[in-house]
Structure formats: structure tokens, C-alpha cells
Structures
1.
Amino acid sequence: MSSEHPVRQIVIIGGGIIGCTTAYYLCSHPAFATSGTKVTLLEASVYGAAQGASGKAGGLVAKWAYPKELVNVSFPEHVRLAQEHNGTQRWGWRFVGCGSWEGRGELAREDTGTGVGKGGERKSLEKTNGLDASTPAKTQAPTGLPDDLTWVKAELTDAYSPMAPAGATAQVHPRLFTT
């Protein structure tokens, strides 16, 4: 390359969602191929991208999140990227339901070999503070529990209410997405 057009070097520090997104958009810009620019992403973890906060997050993408100014750009962009790059297969992109569940826990079966607490002492996770001990437990869950919420026992459910309409909440696998 001639001295008239020196190679520009951009170094991005951190392979989390911000660093990886910055590298992606720099490299996918229409002028990048002819720009003489080299982009280097540095990540401290020997295990690769998204080992910090990005790798531990739940991958929630929601139209109802905040700040709205960011959401109004990021949610449709997540949809576009998933469609353009086969996000369903590559990073687990999927629309999900989101709701508020209220209910009771139950003790694990004795034969599971799992204990809770010091010395394997089992403890109930049911919250009973302030409840009248004579109040009978509800045996039927109210309608509204989503059909695909199969890991929740209906008989332990007191209430469920959706937090957003269909298509307003999605999820990605953070490590796969940043990789």
C-alpha cells in the first residue's frame, strides 16, 4: 500500500457484546473492504468471547425493555440479523413468552440424592410468612398458564400473567451470539 493510503489499525478491547458488535459493524460497512483498515479484537479470556457479563447474561431481547431509544433500534436489528445469518441455528435466536408466575415449591424426592443446606438438610422454599396456617393450598391453577410452560406444575401455580404480547420478547445464547 502506498504512503498516501496508510493502513489504519483499530483495536477493540473486550470480546463482549459491545466489542463484538463494534467489530461486526465496522467490518460489514460497505466502505470497509476498500478502506485499508485492520480491525483487531482483544479478549482477556483464553476461552474466547463473552466470558464476562455477556456470557453470563440470559440473552434477553425485549421490546418492553429500556431505555426505549436503544430498544427501538436493537430489537428490530436482532430480528434482521437472525433472519440474515440463520440466528436460530447459529446462536439460538427464538421468540419466547414472558410472564409473571406465582406459586409454591415442593421438596425434592428423597431418592434424588440432592440436599439443600448444610449437611444435606432439606428446606422448603415455600414462602409462608404472614399466611394463616389453616389456609388450604389451592389445588387448581387458574387458566392462563401457557401450554409451552411444561416445566411448571399447574397444581403448584397460584397465578400467571403474561408480561408482553407474542413477538415482543426473544432470547439469544450470549456466547454463541458474540462468537
2.
Amino acid sequence: NRDNRTLERIVKQIPFKNVGEIHKNWTATGVSASRTTTHRRIQDMGFSCRISCVKPFLNNRQRQKCLAWTKDKKNWTAAEWSKIMISDESKFCISFGNQGPRVWRKRGEAQNPRFLRSSVKFPQSVMVWGAMSSAGVGPLCFLRSKVNVAVYQEVLEHFMLPAADQLYGDADFVFQQDLAPAHSAKATSTWFKDHGIPILNWPANSPDLNPIENLSEVPAMWMFQGVPSRKKIRITIVSV
């Protein structure tokens, strides 16, 4: 029992180590066991070796703002949320390889900060803008350059406005976007004011609050929903 407690303490202290490293640390305490026995004991304790979840880093101020935002919106009705047109740019990795370090954790610990890994920027990828609402989804925009103010306004003009007409018609709506530099720029704010489109206030660095993140996990649903095959490329790709 003492040896088991020692092993469990080692796994909890260094959850990102592989079995070989954990085995080395355990046997260094005087335990006589094979690597296979070490692996089996770890699994018997309820640990599984998983790909670590990735979550943006939030400082205390950002955490407080996210909490205040969620408390403010927690009593919103379905009718109020139905007026929100939710948008985002999503980066889809097109190079499949290293998925990052694995981590030893127990069931229900996937979002524990101790078992999260930092995001790795700039893998080979494609950037796609999309929007959704309770009425459905709008067309996709494949971006071939960095999203600066000029590019973003082109997306708003040629994709967001048609999407709004498609989803809301003449009804009022509120547009949601995150606080990316191109989104929060003064010129972009002026564009929305000139078009009479209200913006939903949004806390910084909070993709986990955005329901479109769930939809971006299944991009094929955006690609093929109600789009005739001969028109897919024409309506969804823009060279900006």
C-alpha cells in the first residue's frame, strides 16, 4: 500500500511524464517492479493516458470579466439569444502529426488546469470565417491572407451582410465577435455604426464561451448545408 501511494503521488506530481519516466522515478524510491507492472498499477488507480486539452491562458482580471459576463447573461431567454448572430474565424490544421504530450489523469479531470497544455501557434492550416444563429448557418469565407481591418471589412461586406439577410431578413439582430485586433479596431466600430448593427459585448480571450466553437468541430456541416455542389466554391471562397 505504501508503494502504491508513492506511485500515485509521483503520477500526480508529474502527470505529463510517460510510463518509462514514471517507472524510473518509482523504482528510484526502492520499489522493485517492471515497467509493465508500473503501467498496470497506474491504470488500476484509475489513471488513463490521454491527449491533453488546450485552453487559452487567462489572467485574474480576464477571469473576473468572463465570470461577470456569464452572470449578466445567465437569465437570458431563448428569444433574446435568438437575436444574436455568432461569428468567428476558425483555423483548421491541415497537417496531421504530433498531437502534443499525453497526460495521466482520472475521469472527470480533463479541464483541470494541472492537466492542460499550452496552445502551439502556426501549424500548417487554413483560416475560415463563419457565422451562425438559431435560424441556421451562413456561408463560409476561406481567408487567404491575415485578417487585418481591411480584410475583415471585406468579409463583413460580402459575407456577414448576406448571411444576416439570409438568417434574419428584415428582423433586428445583434452581431457577436471576439476582441481580435481587426474586430475591435476603431475603423471596424465605425463600419458597424454606419450600417446600424449593434455589437454584443464580449470578454477577452474566451473562446470557450462561444457556441460556434462546437460547430467548428464539424466543418463539413457548414460546407454542405443547403449549398448546391456546383456553387460551393463560388459562394464560399474569397481572395482577400
3.
Amino acid sequence: EKAVNLKKDLAEMQEWMTQAEEEYLEKDFEYKSPEELENAVEEMKRAKEDVLQKEVRVKILRDNIKMLAAKVPSSGQDLATELNIVLENYQLLCNRIRGKCHTLEEVWSCWIELLHYLDLETAWLNNLEERVQMTENLPDKLDAVNDALESLESVLRHPADNRTQIRELGQTLIDGGILDDIISEKLEAFNAHYEELSHLAVSRQIALEQQLQTMRETDHMLQVLQENLVELDRQLTSYLTDRVDAFQMPQEAQ
């Protein structure tokens, strides 16, 4: 009777493992929204806990069959063979569920990381947009233009590392068919905004550099002219002091 009960327990254990495999490992999941992906991660965590909790029952079955085999070798031998099959299947199921759970957790982490980098770069783009707007309607002063140019250039020196992470993380998820529509839409919007704003910022940078160069050249010309006027004033004052006749002066002094 004990052998019959143990055989029944082994059959029930095998049936449970078959059901667990069908439920957790053979379904075709499509993760088209973050909610679906998050739910799948939580479900696989519960599945892993559920499977690992069966370890106690498996050990009890193994011990009982070993005890029976020691007392009744003829009955125990057949059960031991079935037990080995159940143990192998159980270990395989544990490994597969652990693997799938780890994969889904990695995918979720990848998605969260992508959102993090998108937030960082969006904040940078907003800052860049503010700096570009600050370059409009500047007072016609060299210091004001120079400060605006330096401020814009400091933002434009932003490294490309985050954008590389966004591209790689997004492509990894899209290649896996995970949240591909949502990610494609987010990346398309981000890239379009980045290209438009960075092009505008660089154009404004070039315009400011040209404006600054023109203002510096104008200031230099005015400085030279001012120096020449001072020298001419000195010469004319000298001529007047010496009562020199105008017709005796050089043509430019006349």
C-alpha cells in the first residue's frame, strides 16, 4: 500500500511539473506595453517561488522511496527508477524557470534604464533649447554676445554617451520584439527633436561667432580711428600753437 501511495505521489508530482511547464514556459508572450512586461516579470517571480517550494515535497518523496527500497527492494527498485526521472525533470524545470525569470528581469531592467537615459537627454535638450532662446534679441554689446556664445557652447559640449546607450538599449529591446512599437515611437520622437534642436543650436552658434568677429573687427577699426584722431588733433593743435599757415601744411592737415 505504501508503494502504491508513493507511486501515486510521483505521478501527481510529474503531472504538476507538466502543467507548470505548459503554463510558464510554453506560452507565447507578447510584451506590447510596459504593464504587460511588468506583469510577466511578477508572474515569473511567483512561478520561481512556487517551483522552489516543491523542493521540500521532492525531498520527502526521495527519502520515503529510499526507506521503502531498503525494506522492500523489489518494490523500491521500480519506484527509484521513476523517482530519478521525476528528479531530473524537476531540476530541469527549476533551471528553465530560473533562466526565464532572470531574462525577464534583465529585460525589465533594460526598459527602466532606457527610460532613465531618455529622461536625462530630454532634460539636456530642454536646457539647450533655453540657451538657444537666450541668444535671441541680444543687446548690441560685445560682452553680451560673447557670454551668450560661451553659454551655448558649454551646453553643446554635452557628451554623446547617453545617446549611445539609448540607441543600444532601444535596439536590443526592439530586436527581441519587446515593447517595439512604444520604443520605436519614443526613439523617433527623441531623435527628431534632437536633430532639429542641435541643428538650430549649431546654426545659432555659427551666427554668434560671426557676429562676435564682426563686432571685434568694428571695435578694432574704431580704436584705430580714435588713435588716428587723437594724433591728428595733437598735430593740428601743434600747428595752431606754432601759427603755421594752412597752405604750408600737408594736404591731409589742410
